[in-house]
Amino acid sequence: MSTRNNDHIYINAFNLISGIGPKKLYLIAKHFDAFEYAWKSTSRDLADAGFSKKLIQDIVNQRQNIDPATEFQKLQDSDIQITTIQDKYFPKNLKTITSPPFLLYVRGNLDALKSPSIAVVGSRKISDYGKHAISSIISDVARSGITIVSGLALGTDAQAHRQALESNGKTIAVLGGGIDDTTITPRSHINLAKQILDSGGTIISEYPIGSQPNRGTFPARNRIMAGLTDATVIIEATKKSGTLITASHAYKFGKKLFALPGSIFATNSAGPNMLIRDKNAIPLLCANDILNIFKNVLNSGQKSSGQACLSTTLAGNQKILYKTIKKHPEGVQINIISKQTKLDTSTISSELTMMEIDGIVKNIGNQTYILI
Fold first, then answer.
1. Which CATH number fits domain 1-77: 1.10.3470, 1.25.40, 1.10.150, 1.10.10?
2. Under 8 Å between Cβ of 329 and 269
3. Where are the domains of the chain?
4. For the structural domain made of 110-294, what CATH number should be given?
5. Is 108 in contact with 222 (CB distance < 8 Å)?
6. Run of H or E residues at 370
7. How far apart, in whole angstroms, are the C-alpha atoms of residue 286 and residue 304?
8. Residue whose C-alpha is closest to residue 147's, from 129, 160, 132, 134
9. Residue 273 main-chain phi, psi, to 5 deg
10. Topology (CATH) of 314-371
């Protein structure tokens, strides 16, 4: 496949035609010396390239109403760049996956696409437990220099992006529609999208500006998140959640897959628990679980606080309490802790106070404790 400097103009034009997706763009690149030639080709040329009669007619009809230069100017006016699989900025991780995208529309920092990264995805109806996990684990990962990738959706996605921003880290949003200001969805996250860009982050999509996301574009978006990153983290998901599509892609691509374990009675933990059982997902207990796979790319001084992995360093009663509370991810009361540890409540209260000061546990009310 070869390219010319102005090929992006015509690649974008072809991508505006309904019926043209990654496979057809690859077909054009394989058959024609340049996309400009393909755009100006005859129906016979398109037939020789392997296009069906219906698609050829669609191309002939639709390109009459598309001015490639005008459409490309719209991208420039919105500070949107194009990178294709033929370009140096196209993420290497994406080149090797099954059915890679042919092109990406990019706003923001192109260099972020080359950085070590993890995808963080989960339920749109994130629980307090999920929020605590993101604030205590993903914050450490972001501070360590790993880029946080998510989908800008409600719930887990937004929480992951915001935690990366609050930790002065980088984050990438992968969308299932256009990335121009008038199209970004959900509309309630326009300000979050701008914060991502202002912080040196990136917003990407394989869909042209003006494209509205739909049920079909989200699974395709999920494959990009799983393919772009070095590992995927599943925070929460029901048994039939779309989040598990991302996990499935990560598993198929041979990427590291982490899942946050949770209560067997919590609907939102059903998905992660199944991934741990059925897909050998790594139980996510602390930031170091993730950072260990990046030890060759991180600076020696970049380490997480590792508070959620303290069971190996705590001693005596605190170690016992840690292990007991760990069994109750949604919280456990002191009286239950006492029954399970055989420790008296005064000792438990004293030790938990010290552990709370050290930032290991948190009293969420009614003498109920969770790990931070």
1. 1.10.150
2. yes
3. 1-77, 110-294, 314-371
4. 3.40.50.450
5. no
6. strand 368-371
7. 9
8. 160
9. -60, -40
10. Arc Repressor Mutant, subunit A (1.10.10)
Sign of the C-alpha dihedral computed for residues 105, 109, 114 and 115 taken in this order: negative
Question: Could you give the dihedral angle defined by the CA atoms of residues 345, 347, 348 and 353, in that order, rounded to the nearest 10 degrees?
Answer: 120
Q: Return per-residue pLDDT of the chain as tens, 372 residues.
A: 334 458 999 999 999 999 999 999 999 999 999 999 999 999 999 999 999 999 999 999 999 999 999 999 999 999 999 999 989 889 999 999 989 999 999 999 999 999 999 999 999 999 988 998 898 899 999 999 999 999 999 999 999 999 999 999 999 999 999 999 999 999 999 999 999 999 999 999 999 999 999 989 999 999 999 999 999 999 999 999 999 999 999 999 999 999 999 889 999 999 999 999 999 999 998 899 999 999 887 764 444 444 446 554 567 888 899 889 988 988 999 999 999 999 999 899 988 988 887 778 889 998 899 987
